[in-house]
Each structure stands twice: as C-alpha cells, then as structure tokens.
Amino acid sequence: MKKSIRTFLKHPTKDNSNRSANPAVIRASTILFNTMQELYEHEKKIKKHKKITHYSYGRYGSSTTIELENILRELEEAYHVFLTGTGFGGVALAIMSLCRPGDELLVSDNVYGPTKEISEKLLKEFNVQAKFYNPDSFEDLKNKVTNKTKMILVENPGSNTFEFQDLSKIIKLAKREKIFTFLDNTWGTPLYLKPLKLGFDMSFSSATKYFSGHSDAMGGSLAVNKKVFKKIMFFYKLSGYRMSADEAYLIIRGLRTLDTRLKQHYENTKIVINFLKKQKKINEILYPHNPSSKNYKLWKKYYSGGTGLLSIVIKSKNKGSVIKFVNSLELFGIGYSWGGFESLAILQDLTTRKKNEYIQSRRYYRFKKDQYIVRLHIGLEDPKDLINDLRNGLRYIK
Ligand SMILES: Cc1ncc(COP(=O)(O)O)c(C=O)c1O
C-alpha cells in the first residue's frame, strides 16, 4: 500500500527485536562479525551500496544512524543521504568533496554566514575561487559562469533576507554547462520542496532546525543523487564526518512530528504577519506573504508550504531602541539557530560590520544604515500571546 509521507513518518524504525515503538540507540565503535569471511562479505555489500542494517565500523555510523538515513532517503527521494555531526558539516562536506584547485564555486550572495566564509576564505587557500551572485538576478548568475565553474551553491530562501530564486532556470543552466548543483533547503524542508526531484544534485538541510525540532540536537543531512555519490563518499570516509547515535535518535523522534509542527509554525506565522503588516514601525517583512511580490510568486511556484522563519526591517535612528525591543520580548528567546518549538529573535547587526569581514556581504546591499533587520522564528506558542509580546516590545522603538 502506498503511504503518504505524513503516515510514513509515524511508522518507520520500530525495533522488532526489543518490541519497542522506537529504534534502539546503538552506540558503537567496534562492530562484531562471526568470521573474517562475514566481514569481507559485508564490506563488499557496503561498497556496492546494497541495503545494510549496520556498518563495518562505528566511524561510519551505527544501526540508529542507518535508520535515519533510510527515513531521509525516502523523504528526499535520494540515492543516498550523508549524515554529519552539525548542519555546517554537511555544507563543508559538499564543497570539499567536489571543488579542486583551479575550480570556481558560484554562491548565491545571501547564504548563511559560515557558508560564505568557507567559500570566500578557506577555499582561496586551496586555489578554488568563490564568486558571489545576486540572488535577485538570474542574469548575474548566468554571466558569472565560466568553463571553470564546478558547482553552484544556492540557499533558498537566503538566510535573513529571504530572496527566492527561479530554481528551474538554475538547474537548466547547470545541466547544460555540466555544473554540480547544491541547494540549502533548511527553510522549506523536503516536506515542502524536494530539490533532488527538481534536478539538484545535492539537497542539504541542517537537521538541527526543523528535523530535530526541539533545540536539543545538532546534525546535517546531505541527500545526493547517484552522479555525485561516489565523490562525496570518498571524502566522507576520509574526513571522519559522522553523526552520533544519540543525535540520530533525537532527529528521528523529531521527524515523526515534522508535518504537524510545520503546519502550526506556518499558521502561527501567518497570524503574526497579519499583525506585523499593520505596524508603522516596521518597514518591510521579509517572508513570501505578499501575493503581488516576486518572492511570493517564486515561493508558490516551487513550495507546497511555508515555515516559521522571517525577518522584519525596522527603520530607526536609534539602534539602542531596537535592541531594547529585542531585549523586552518575553516569549522570544535571544539566540542563534531556529526550527525548534519556541520563538526566537535576533538583531542582524548591519552597522558594526567591518570591511573585509565575511559578513560584509552583498546580501544586505539594499538596506540602509538606519534600517535594522530583526530575524524572528515564530514558534508553537499561542500566536495571540506572541502578538501581545511583540506589540509591547515595539513601543520601545524610537
Ligand atoms: C540556512 C542554514 N544553513 C546551514 C546552517 C548550519 O547548520 P548548523 O547550525 O546545524 O551547523 C544554518 C544554521 O543556522 C542555517 O541557518
């Protein structure tokens, strides 16, 4: 019987030998075999990418991480899923597996800060040149492609500024020019967008965010097609990247409610945005909510749902008052990351940015010095309470 993903997420990974509804957490370094022949046979199976229930050594994972790989492979419709100890490890894994001296890497100029930093700073030391394109201009991307371009790295929407790109156009160009493609899909999750089905070679999610959903685990998921599998496996094995069994267990537990949580994040976000739209102190809401905007149209074209992360742009001559607004919020924690059950707020500081710092990035190019971006993660609290909290906090802005 063909099941929907919603049903599927509730049912995998029963542990039949222990009769538990959830998988066992198998922490292992040594994996035991009965004979050398059995060990050799097992390694052959792994090499041929055959279905296995355990690896031959704990550095590649345990039966718990295999359970998670299997769930994500189904969710992403992937050939294979590589799990890493943090989300960022998954980004680094993709870049370091594919880019070699002399190559160029094309990156959308609205990516997560450390993704920008690895592209700009670290790769330079390996003679790989990173070029950044304007996420609002496909022409700019097209013009920056050369015969050295090895990979296009897209984050959709971009961290903090939420530009949406015309993804099929990028795929078409990359296929024609034989360039590998990577999409950071952490915002939309594979529930609302399946990058591999669209034609990307790699679909990445920070599992720290919505997959885990409870702000208590870290991990990365790099889902890939057959074309890039071997190259990434080569680097994965030699780099020692892996996810622990404990984190894998927590992420499996989070995934069971991914659909339900995302629905509620989105419902709450729409209600909060309706309130924010009416606030005079807010210049702009960075989220695909306005049906006449380009971002909304591109979101509608590719995504089947929305999630809970957005930014608001506040115009103020008094930075201290914006900080007071953030500090005053009782229900929004101040801190990095997002995708957990709870609401969060953070000021993306535009004014203290120094030249040549990685964060000095074009992704903020259209904002002026007296505009402040506050990123909000809308959690699963009652949105009425979130609105009251925001209304109270906005009074501080001068
Ligand atoms: C869009 C995006 N990609 C990647 C990452 C990195 O994930 P992690 O924090 O799990 O290393 C983050 C983290 O904030 C993110 O927001």
What does this structure look like?
The protein has 398 residues and is of the alpha/beta class. It folds into 2 domains: 5-255, Aspartate Aminotransferase, domain 2; 258-394, Aspartate Aminotransferase, domain 1 (Alpha-Beta Complex), CATH 3.90.1150.10. 39% of the residues lie in helices and 16% in strands. The protein has helices at residues 5-8, 36-47, 63-76, 87-98, 113-122, 138-144, 167-177, 189-192, 195-198, 226-239, 245-256, 258-276, 294-302, 319-328, 383-394; strands at residues 80-84, 104-108, 129-133, 149-155, 180-184, 202-206, 220-224, 282-286, 309-315, 333-334, 344-348, 371-377. A 7-stranded mixed sheet has the order 1-7-6-5-4-2-3, with helices on both faces. Helix 3 (63-76) runs parallel beside helix 11, helix 4 (87-98) crosses helix 10 and helix 14 (319-328) packs antiparallel against helix 15 (383-394). Mean pLDDT is 94; it is low at 356-360. The structure holds pyridoxal-5'-phosphate (PLP). Residues 86-88, 91, 112, 155, 159, 184, 186, 206, 208, 218, 220, 337 line the site of pyridoxal-5'-phosphate. The site of pyridoxal-5'-phosphate has 14 residues, from helix 4.
Structural class: alpha/beta
Please count the beta strands (DSSP E, at least 2 residues each).
12
User: Ions, cofactors, ligands: which are bound?
Assistant: pyridoxal-5'-phosphate
Query: What is the approximate shape?
Result: globular
Helix proportion range: 25-40%
Q: Tell me the span between the first and last alpha carbons.
A: 60 Å
The stretches of 5 or more residues where confidence is low (pLDDT under 50) are 356-360
CATH topology of the largest domain: Aspartate Aminotransferase, domain 2
Sheet with the most strands, sense and barrel status: 7 strands, mixed
CATH class of the largest domain: Alpha Beta
CATH homologous superfamily assignment of the largest domain: Type I PLP-dependent aspartate aminotransferase-like (Major domain)
Q: What is the second-level CATH architecture of the largest domain? A: 3-Layer(aba) Sandwich
Tally of contiguous helical segments = 15
Give the averaged pLDDT, no decimals: 94
Number of domains: 2
Rg from C-alpha positions?
Answer: 22 Å
Q: Per DSSP, what share of the residues sits in E-state strands of 2 or more residues?
A: 15-25%
Strands ordered across the widest β-sheet? 1-7-6-5-4-2-3
Compressed to H and E, one letter per element, the order equals HHHEHEHEHEHEHHEEHHHEHEHEEEH
